[in-house]
Structure of Threonine transporter RhtB:
Amino acid sequence: MPVAEWITFVVAISILTITPGLDTVLVIRNTSRGGWKDGVTSSFGICSGLFVHATLSAVGISFILVQSAWLFQTVKIIGAAYLIYLGICSLRSGWKAGSLGIVSNQISDNQFNMKRSFSEGFLSNVLNPKTAIFYLAFLPQFINPEGSAISQSFILAGIHFILAMTWQSSLAFVIERAKSWLAKPKTNQWLQSLTGCVMVGLGLQLLLSKNVRL
């Protein structure tokens, strides 16, 4: 791939990465829940899901997903339901934080569970039809038909992985530095409730929308 195309890809994927969305919300929410490790592990799960979309795009399954109405709707409903579930969990955490009324000196690390954090990030990405459609529409523009579509897709997804992990981990670190502010029950309640509402809203929007638009 020519250097100009590499630059175009990096710039485009960087803009996509730093644009606030579900990934940002999830990293903020989980970092406020269990600290920097929670946020970074969630980010690792999110970014690992990119390789699933790269594979699906390479073998053409994403194309079938778009063309098959019932299959698309099934994935759409599952993804939306999972977002709503995460949002409800965050809202419940917010209500509990507000009801405790206790000020802590730090984010509670005992709430960190590596398997839970990774699976939340991974599933939120894999079950997002918007990511599948983006990879279907975007990656083929940078793939040489004379080469291996799968290997090239994995390289491009790897670049996206590095950029997204760097950005989201930095975000988690900044939030961790503000732990004395986040540890206040009212602040934690506000943040958990806000991110919960955003997740539920994203899930409902995805569930009710007739078409997924990028």
Q: What stands out?
A: Residues 99-106 have pLDDT under 50 and may be disordered. The longest helix spans residues 69-100. Residues 3-97+111-182 form one domain.
